Amino acid sequence: MKRKIFSRFSIILFVIGLMTAIQYNTINEPDSRDTRDVWEIRQELSREKQLHSELLSEVGLLDSTLSKYDEISSESPEQALKDTVEELRGLAGLTEMTATGIEMTIEPSAEAVAFGEEIDYIAPDLLIRLVNEINRNNGLYVSVDGNRIVNTTAIRDINGLTTVNAIPIQTPPFKIKIASNSMEDTEKLYNHLLSSRILDDFYIDNLSVEISAPKEQVTIEPYEKELNYRHLKIAEEE
Amino acid sequence: MWLSILGLILGISLGLLTDIQIPPEYANYLSIAVLASLDTLFGGIRAHLQQVYDDKVFVSGFFFNIILAAGLAFLGVHLGVDLYLAAIFAFGVRLFQNIAVIRRIILAKWAEKKHVSETPS
């Protein structure tokens, strides 16, 4: 009799163990499966490759700077340093920059004018979106209505006025200038902007955007204020 | 007794090694089924200790409880009411009661044994 009971118990315990283990397996399943298809993975790969080539070109640039130092340092180290400082000021947006680029004109849309609506405002969000769109697509030097966009630039609403670098921008129409390193980059940016949905977003706000064809010479104004270094710290040497 | 533990170990290892999985929608049912079977198991142990164990009651209770619990959960899902909570509550309460009874019986037996061994005359 006792034997029979225990054999029953073992069978039940076996089933319990099995169910518990299956439950454990199910709960511990990795919760996010990779469901990307081939094309998404290819896209990811191409992004990474682009990053790779960008990094490589940066390495090349730094190498050339280094060799320049080596060449010049024997004769005049001062000049080499000055050159570098000038270059860095250019990158930071403190100098005027003339390069290939395009000009965009933001103006009230014809429909809005026809209806007699008064357009005297561009939303900071829209402007930020546009600048992000430009930054993403090879636009290296940007100025909005004569205000250079630098790393610390804030585009925001101050007392109902949209400001760039705390300077209110004009009511539309005004110009946005964008310059890139090469004509190829400029053309890419131009084509991208023409096809991007950002123009529709402007249209919703009763604004139309006119994009000039790529020009050989676009002059971007320098950043006119003092750069704010308050939160910068000297990196510690390792 | 060792046979039962062997059964448990065998079940767990078989489940883990074969890596069987069920769709996550059914995980709820399985957890209730596990609870129901645990309840039946402890009920069986209690009955055995109280000398009222019956084979048919035990085995039928095992399957019936599981089916009832899963059915309740299924109904709950389709009615939008968390009926499986009822099953969890009922089984949980009974589980604790059964374990408490088992504990008392074992304690009583242990005390009795001690008493017997202390008075050998």
TrEMBL record, chain A:
Annotated family? Belongs to the UPF0749 family.
Name used for this protein in its record: DUF881 domain-containing protein
Q: Which organism is it from?
A: Planococcus massiliensis
Automatic annotation (TrEMBL), chain B:
Its organism's taxonomic lineage begins at: Bacteria, Bacillati, Bacillota, Bacilli, Bacillales
| Principal location class | membrane
State the compartments where it is located.
Cell membrane
One cellular component term (GO) for this entry is: plasma membrane
- Name its species: Planococcus massiliensis
Q: Which residues form a coiled coil?
A: none
Q: What membrane topology does this protein have?
A: Multi-pass membrane protein
Name-wise, this protein is: Small basic protein
Return the Pfam families for the record. DUF1290 (PF06947)
